[in-house]
Amino acid sequence: MVDHEQEKIQQAIESISPAPDARERMLANIRKKAAASTESVSTAVPEKSVSEAPVRAVSRRPVYVKILSIAASVAVLIGCGFLIRNLQSKKSAPTETSIRTEGGQVLFETTYSSSDDLEKATGIRLLPPKSGTDILYFSTESSGTIAGVRFSIGADMYYLYATKDPSDAFREITPDAPSRDLDTETKAQLTTDSDTQTETIVWTQGDVTYCLFNSDTATEDDLTQIYWEIKK
Amino acid sequence: MTETALCTDADFESFYERHWKYVYRLSFTYLRNVEDAEDCTEDVFVKVLTGNNAFQDEIHERKWLTVTTINLCKDRLKSFSHKNVRSLDDDTFPEPASSEKEDQSEILEAVMDLPIHLKDVVLLFYFDGYKTDEIAEMLSRPSSTVRNQLSDARKALKKKLGDILW
């Protein structure tokens, strides 16, 4: 029975066919991205790097492209998203910069060896919980500066972002997902995204808005406990 | 055990040739659109190129690629951009080439619609052929959890697909 199921599912997944030119195009992009990631690049002068960006696949989604081009507030969020992809490395020092691109936009990602270095670069101080391990400090530039720290507690990984961007874009995350108020003092709201099985807590302290979210194995209680610790 | 590093361009191209379709397909099942799947595939191989990885054998290569691809896909799914923008125009499924492919298309759609924690185990068990103990190790979940999730996934697929799969 399992063999029959396996054969059918394998056939279904193997029916996913890459575009005819995908092999060569992706290989070229891989080489460009790999070369870019090994170069030491300043976090400034985005115009220079646009010309170095890997060739993108022909867009099949003009609506998406239009939305990207007109939604300035979303650009801040995009920066965070592509940063995460680059954080699988266990290396935590020294400071390094890499480039990520999407939809023709160039985003800069910089990692730091300490919270102090992150604060010097972004003006935002971020500290993970005391029990956090595998800590990585980073920042990204999009339409504004976003500071972040990735950390693990046990087998669960968490990301904490912070920005002084007045557009308050973190609060626009998953607007349709169910949310509940967690803390009136900081306007903290906990949002549950059933699709990706992640919970997100967004709150504001002073002029900084924070966004904390978890890996798919962490629970809402885990995340809430971390919020209370970080808030202190 | 000897390890093989990807020292030359030819080594890497051979590695890419062996695995690129697999990585693309795995990415597509999570990300559900061509652009993201291609981008994620590129990022996986960039990690290969820049990570000084040395693989013991093809099984080791495949396991490394599987775990790395799944992790990168999940990161992308969690990203703000995916939550806010991608959902507006998701699900660019490949068109069935003929009516006889419609069953495959339905199965694929059902697998892709599974919650992520169930999709993980279905793909690793059915597509990759890993045993539940191996899946548990790869996903850092208890074996009993993997077996329960596999059972839940089967029920969900059966409810959606009925006779197509069984």
Question: Describe it for me?
Answer:
The complex is a heterodimer of chains A (232) and B (166). Chain A has helices spanning 2-14, 22-38, 46-50, 62-70, 72-85, 115-122, 220-231; strands at residues 96-102, 105-112, 133-141, 145-153, 156-163, 179-183, 188-193, 198-205, 208-214. By secondary structure, chain A is an alpha+beta fold. Chain A has one domain (28-231). The longest helix of chain A has 17 residues, at 22-38. By secondary structure, chain B is mostly helical. Helices cover 70% and strands 2% of the residues of chain B. Chain B is built from eight helices and two strands; from the N terminus they run E-H-H-E-H-H-H-H-H-H. In chain B, helix 1 packs antiparallel against helix 2 (34-50) and helix 7 (132-139) crosses helix 8. The longest helix of chain B is centred in the first third of the chain and has 23 residues, at 9-31. Chain B starts with a strand and ends in a 5-residue tail after the last helix. Residues 85-91 of chain B have low confidence and may be disordered. Chains A and B meet through helix 1, helix 2, helix 4 and helix 5 of A and helix 1, helix 2, helix 3, helix 4 and helix 5 of B.
What would the keywords be for this entry?
heterodimer, A: 232 residues, alpha+beta, 9 strands, 34% helix, B: 166 residues, mainly alpha, Rna Polymerase Sigma Factor, Chain: A, Arc Repressor Mutant, subunit A, 2 domains, two-stranded antiparallel ribbon, 8 helices, globular
Secondary-structure topology with pairs:
The complex is a heterodimer of chains A (232) and B (166).
Chain A: H1 2-14, H2 22-38, H3 46-50, H4 62-70, H5 72-85, E1 96-102, E2 105-112, H6 115-122, E3 133-141, E4 145-153, E5 156-163, E6 179-183, E7 188-193, E8 198-205, E9 208-214, H7 220-231
Antiparallel strand pairs in A: 1-2, 2-3, 3-4, 4-5, 5-9, 6-7, 7-8, 8-9
Chain B: E1 4-5, H1 9-31, H2 34-50, E2 54-55, H3 58-78, H4 80-84, H5 102-113, H6 116-127, H7 132-139, H8 143-161
Helix pairs in contact in B: 1-2, 1-3, 2-3, 6-8, 7-8
